[in-house]
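INFO  loader      accepted 1 record
INFO  loader      residues=397
INFO  predictor   begin
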Amino acid sequence: MIRIIIICAVLLLGLVVGPMAAGHQGYLLLSVAGYNIETSATTAGVLLALAFIVLLLLEWLISRLFSCRSRLRNWFIRRRKQKAVDNTMSGMLAMTEGNYRKAEKLIVRGAREHHTPLLNYLSAAEAAQGQSKPEQRDNYLRLAYEHEPKAELAIGIVQARLQLQSKQFEEALATLRQLYRSQPRNVEVLGLLRQVYLKLGEWQDLLDLLPNLQKQKVCSESECHKLLRVAIQGLFEQLAKDKDPAPLINSWRSLSKAERLDPVILAALCRQLMLLNADQQAFEFLKEGLKLSLDPQLLALFGRLKLNDLQVAERYLDKLIESQPSQAALYRAKGSIQLQLGLPDKAAQSYEKLVSLKDVTAEDYLKLASLSEQARLPDKAAGYYRKGLNLAIASNP
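INFO  predictor   done
INFO  writer      dumping tokens
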């Protein structure tokens, strides 16, 4: 616009000054390298004005040409970016539909011009996973990291999830341990690490992780307590493979008092000790637990003890029955001990007392029916079989 105004002003000036200078054109002599150019001052001025106008026109034409080239380049760039967005969207829809092969092709094609190639490569990794192509999956994750090294945490979490899905537990563990070293408070990393420890039976590592799980609220207090029980039971089973009760007992003693006397944990300890034929030690631990709670699990194990002197166990149960005469599990344990002692009549009396109380099971009636048969009491045995069957049907409608 300014240049057009200048041109108009020059032309207007020529129209005004031209006639005034018509009778006074003046004289101009230009000498260059032995050549002389002669003209009037008015003509020279007109020629200069025309040359200036031509230069302005040339500049305008050149700028228009470059402007068109720039607009064309920008159009192609926008078109490629829009195509990348369209490919990415189509790929995502294909993956949602379960067409992983098509999804992978479109998403990777879209990654070349997409403004967020990281997300494309992560999605492509999931598409490769859907086709059971772990090597291609890992390649896409590597490309994602090359495009966005700062997203190491997000990429690592996706990698660990996919490794878990494909049951590559050892690889997932290596990935998550690396992430845990740099991000020990990340909830997602902690949750995935918990899953891997459970799958691999890394019980001691899971126990070490539990305080952080609870602190970061990855699990509630009750959930963490259940997880603690599972981990300790798994650890006891692991330690029992050495066929030596000492490491097992030492592990139990390393727990807090509340954990040691937890009926589930104490039952897990005694169960493994009995499998190692350390019933006498299990007997002592069971007595310690029964002082606090007549837990059915502990009493069930008590009735299966194989001791040199089972009468000691029977007398101990008699003392407990004196203080808790309505506890059915006590009579069940006593009857089991009496059977080991070779006292079927006394065992029958214990089971008869048991079935008169609450918490009786179909197995209790079957046991009593078997004892009645041994005592040659068929009618009585038939009655107990019938009651046991009715209870079993009622319990499993």
